[in-house]
Amino acid sequence: MTSSRRAEPLPHVPNLQERNAAEMLRQAHKTWGGKEDLWVFGYASLIWKPEFEADEQRHARVHGWHRALKMQSRAHRGTPETPGLVFALMAGGCCRGMVYRVAKERAAAELNRLWEREMPFSVYDPKWLRCQTPQGKVKALAFTLSRRSPQFVGHLPDHALVSILQTAKGNFGSSLDYLLDTANSLKNCGIRDREIERMVALVRDQPAHTADAIFPQA
Fold it and tell me: What does pTM read for this prediction?
């Protein structure tokens, strides 16, 4: 016997041509409201290269989301011919990172700068997430990625992942440098990410001549 109930349709995720970065920024300003300080959640490059001035930073944990090297990069960390990979915040699990507080007097200008950095191609889905910090909960802006995005990369076998890390390079540097910078910044913050540790070890364990080029001996 089959059920007469129909499956709920998946929410529509606009493609990149449908997205309007200026309108998305306007909505972000509206949601923030301007009456309180602005909080931003960093999980990868926003930790080691925030490019905005914060008045306070805290360790934070977000439930329901996890950090994943699953977003294709065709400019910053790769090319159209050899796409690279960068981290995104994906639904499921939990993620430890940092939250940054920007005083409300400066927040509007800093939010505009942040948008120029994170949303030039309107790939991310900006969301306001509840973040647990040692001092209590805050609501912070986070840049997430949908699995329905054309930039989402599904499961990659280890050999394919290593190949991308060894070869992909864009105008901001290589995908491997991006991974190592993220790994080092998390370590310096006292944040452990076992999957990142595993990926770094995968590349480090390549044949000696390859590994030496990537991880020069002191």
Answer: 0.86
